Amino acid sequence: MLSPLIFWPCFTGLVILAIGLFTARRDLSAAQGIDKLIVLAPVFFAAPLALFGAEHLVAAKSISQGVPAWMPGHLFWAYFVGCCHIAAALSLVLGKYVRWSSTLMTVMFCLFVAMIHLPNVAANPHDRIIWAVAVRDLTFAAGACALASTQYAHGWKAPLLLARLYTASALIVFAIEHFLHPEFGPGVPLAKVTPDWFPLHSYLGYFAGAVLLIGGAAMLIEKGARPAAAWVGALFTVLTFALYLPIMTTATTVGALNEGQNYVADTLLYAGAVLLLAAAIPIAKTRQDRTATVRESVPLKASSC
Fold this sequence. Notes:
Elements: H1 4-23, H2 25-30, H3 35-39, H4 41-58, H5 60-63, H6 74-94, H7 98-123, H8 128-149, H9 157-180, H10 201-219, H11 222-249, H12 254-280, H13 287-297
């Protein structure tokens, strides 16, 4: 039988994924092309969030060691964050209280960066992995912020702009990392090396780097930001299911399985964050659309006949 460390996180993530796919079925059916993937943004964000939430609950003692030393009640915070993850995941897939959950997720990921990752970066400024984790988690915050910006009557234009510019910059940084270290697994540039059995593994890092570089550069310009974010999200989605899921399923030890499921969840969560940004960016109107809008807004003059 699988270890609880593997079974319950995977089970929870799959349940949330199934609920999300069910609730999104009508929007998914109505969407066309790359918009079908954008529709799944909340689902892709929620499922790994639930997986990590369950992991917090079954491995609370281990995870509590990452809580800053100056904070009391380390074990409490591990359980509390796990429950918050699962609650936020349910909120996203059920479409309930999304304004609150997206806003609080933005705050939560920003606190993770400020209280855990930045001190780690300061203590190990030459460690590229620690930098990558900090940049990654702040992108999660940007995705949640983009979702939150759609939940208010007048929108959050400034936070959405900041989320877009930060995510674009993060993708360019990750692209440079891929060009410098192409042998490591694509997506978020962490410590796992792309296995030899994967087709064209020697070139995968360069390919991913090129997509991230082009996508990040395009996202700096408002007009091309939405499709660029959508295609970057597509890349992370493909990497999740074509690379990291097979790596996980071929693992033979609990430790390797746990590492594999974390890579699967991290990559899908990053896909969800970028796709949430794509979903929040207004669709650029064509010249014909703008002309039609102007004509509709100008009242017709009465005939003189």
